[in-house]
């Protein structure tokens, strides 16, 4: 970017040319309803559940389609309050605070907690919003090798003992599907007097005995003081929350600018999320069906010799490495009626382009077999 000219139209043209030249130009396509979805994050199949839609409509009729104000002015409605209590209960924390999106929850939390004197330690593969939040806060940020606790320990040991330290990690890594070792991170953080923040966007609703995620009730608030969950993935709605101690939540209400200066979540969305939480509790078979789909897909893919990453979550990356190859396969699959994510740099490191295949409780054998057959065909065509 440093070589860009100062004239705006020319700057844009140069940036576009650079990105196209790298084969990284991105295009949106409107989602076809005729495709089998192996690209989304609706792991429990709740996003199209009529009960959620009904709850959303009822919530809108009762409270309005919009919240009309920020939480601190007068946009904080009873339905938000009830939802915060239910979310705190789900993950076994004293309190939870709703945010409009997960991106904002991460920005707000890091910005409110950290400043230039804070040392933040991030897994190299953390979500962009966590990296951006640390940047926004002005904290001194360092990245440790992915799930490498020795590397993290080395960085922590080099930091002055009295400095404020925050270790930050995805729970389930969004592009890889592997899971952070929460116990090891909690031990290490405690040993170095650091707080631990886990973003469990992809674990919530899917992992844990109650769908409470990879942290949830299994790791208490002393061990994992800051827990972020998002509602637009397994819970099928939208928004996010931060869960933790009374003091943490009050601090965020006072200081998290992406919380303070934005309109509260539409009340119908909060009402739909409450319906999703009811279903999460009353229909554990959804998690079992998802588990079955994952086991079946991995078993069959292994027989076909497909280069799947080592993941036991619904995120099943097929490591094709080459960007052109990823795009070709994605287009072919699309033509066969199957939507998968084509993930390229800069979302993942160079040389690690992949198809991001996501599984859902609604995927039956037929859909899975269709995907497997097409992947097998593409692999065969390349070999032949
Ligand atoms: C999706 C995601 C987010 C962002 O959540 P949104 O609600 O979509 O803004 C944050 N962190 C991780 C790990 C995610 O996968």
TrEMBL record:
Keyword Transmembrane recorded: no
Pfam families, per the entry: Aminotran_1_2
InterPro entries per record: Aminotrans_II_pyridoxalP_BS, Aminotransferase_I/II_large, AON_synthase_class-II, AONS_Archaea/Proteobacteria, AONS_Proteobacteria, PyrdxlP-dep_Trfase, PyrdxlP-dep_Trfase_major, PyrdxlP-dep_Trfase_small
Keywords: Acyltransferase, Biotin biosynthesis, Pyridoxal phosphate, Transferase
Listed GO MF terms: 8-amino-7-oxononanoate synthase activity; pyridoxal phosphate binding
Leader sequence segment: none
UniProt GO BP: biotin biosynthetic process
Cofactor(s) needed for function: pyridoxal 5'-phosphate
Modified residues (N6-(pyridoxal phosphate)lysine): 233
UniProt keyword annotation of Signal present: no
Domain of life of the native organism: Bacteria
Pathway per the UniProt entry: Cofactor biosynthesis; biotin biosynthesis
Catalytic activity annotation: 6-carboxyhexanoyl-[ACP] + L-alanine + H(+) = (8S)-8-amino-7-oxononanoate + holo-[ACP] + CO2
Residues binding pyridoxal 5'-phosphate: 102-103, 174, 202, 230
Chain residues that bind substrate: 26, 127, 347
Assigned EC number: 2.3.1.47
Gene3D superfamilies reported in the protein's UniProt record: Aspartate Aminotransferase, domain 1, Type I PLP-dependent aspartate aminotransferase-like (Major domain)
Start and end residues of each Aminotransferase class I/classII large domain: 34-375
Quaternary context: Homodimer.
Protein function: Catalyzes the decarboxylative condensation of pimeloyl-[acyl-carrier protein] and L-alanine to produce 8-amino-7-oxononanoate (AON), [acyl-carrier protein], and carbon dioxide.
Similarity comment text for this entry: Belongs to the class-II pyridoxal-phosphate-dependent aminotransferase family. BioF subfamily.
Alphabetical list of PANTHER family matching this protein: 8-AMINO-7-OXONONANOATE SYNTHASE, CLASS II AMINOTRANSFERASE/8-AMINO-7-OXONONANOATE SYNTHASE
Protein name, per record: 8-amino-7-oxononanoate synthase
Source species taxonomy: Bacteria, Pseudomonadati, Pseudomonadota, Gammaproteobacteria, Oceanospirillales
Gene: bioF
